[in-house]
Amino acid sequence: MKRIGVIGCGVMGSGIAEVCARSSLEVVVHEVNNEALEAGKRRINRSLDRAVSSKRLSEEEGSQALGRISFTTEIEAMADRDLVIEAVTEDEQEKVAIFTLLEKVVTNEDAILASNTSSIPIMELAMATQRPEKVIGIHFFNPVPVLRLVELVSSLLTSPDTTAKSLAFAHDQLGKEVIYCKDRAGFIVNALLIPYILSAIRMLESGFATSEDIDTGMVEGCAHPMGPLALADLIGIDTTHAIARSLYEEFKEPLYAPPPLLSRMAAAGLLGRKTGQGFYSYQG
Fold first, then answer.
1. Is residue 151 among the annotated active site residues?
2. pLDDT digit string, tens, across residues 92-134
3. pLDDT tens column, 55-104
4. Catalytically annotated residue among 18, 86, 124, 151
């Protein structure tokens, strides 16, 4: 893999673009408009600046990484990519629309079309194309430059060649730790993590304990790096809600059902760190 395309330059897309550029790959990032594109550029700049400040990168390495990333609002720029990674919002209709479009504009017949989805079955995305054998899930974790894990998700139609090339990309080129999982909603990590977060939200919603005490209990009592409600804020309330809905739709098990409080917060735009208010306030 030499030429990488990233669709979406939000929290996840910008992180994916950064780690690819830091691994000496040539990256094109697409966003829907110039405003979103500029926000993505600033996000990548800030992240690289932090890496330089903390001595994880030299100034020269940071500058070179940034120089390997180009930004565009033209989806046709994906035509010659070896690998295109979709990293838009966790919405099945929007992702299907992206894959339908990529089918038309990616003219490199050997290109792999990947999704960074947290929970949507890869088969749903693969069938939006005429090359389902080239479609795979490559699920990174936030923050992408820091967390080493990648879930590799092959559908029933993903070819062994696509899986092997994707493994080589994630493990050999990016230096990520790769785990394999079957194509089921939530994959491995979120199928285990989301019910835990939802249980914490139900506990808060019932008045059983405060958010601070719930999180302190899990940090100090179980040695977790952060509590479940703070983690939901980091993931994004909207993303947590979308993953829960996807899991519940597939399995119809009560533990996956979004609690009313989570649904109301998502509807109100109280999305956690990204908006400055979720279970905790991040303003000022």
1. yes
2. 999 999 999 999 999 999 999 999 998 899 999 999 999 999 9
3. 999 999 999 999 999 999 999 999 999 999 999 999 999 999 999 999 99
4. 151
Annotated catalytic residue within 31, 47, 139, 154: 139
**One of 14, 47, 115, 118 is an active-site residue; which one?**
118
Q: Which of 47, 119, 166, 190 is the catalytic position?
A: 190
- Rounded Cα distance between 205 and 202, Å, is 5
* Per-residue pLDDT at 283: 84
Q: What is the 3-state secondary structure (H, E, C) of the chain?
A: CCEEEEECCCHHHHHHHHHHHHCCCEEEEECCCHHHHHHHHHHHHHHHHHHHHCCCCCHHHHHHHHHCEEEECCHHHHCCCCEEEECCCCCHHHHHHHHHHHHHHCCCCCCEEEECCCCCCHHHHHCCCCCHHHEEEEEECCCCCCCCEEEEEECCCCCHHHHHHHHHHHHHHCCCEEEEECCCCCCCHHHHHHHHHHHHHHHHHCCCCCHHHHHHHHHHHHCCCCCHHHHHHHHCHHHHHHHHHHHHHHHCCHHHCCCHHHHHHHHHCCCECCCCECCCECCC
139 is catalytic: yes
pTM over 0.90? The answer is yes
Per-residue pLDDT tens digits for 137-186:
999 998 999 999 999 999 999 999 999 999 999 999 999 999 999 999 99
Burial of 17 (0-12, 13-18, 19+ CB in 10 A): buried
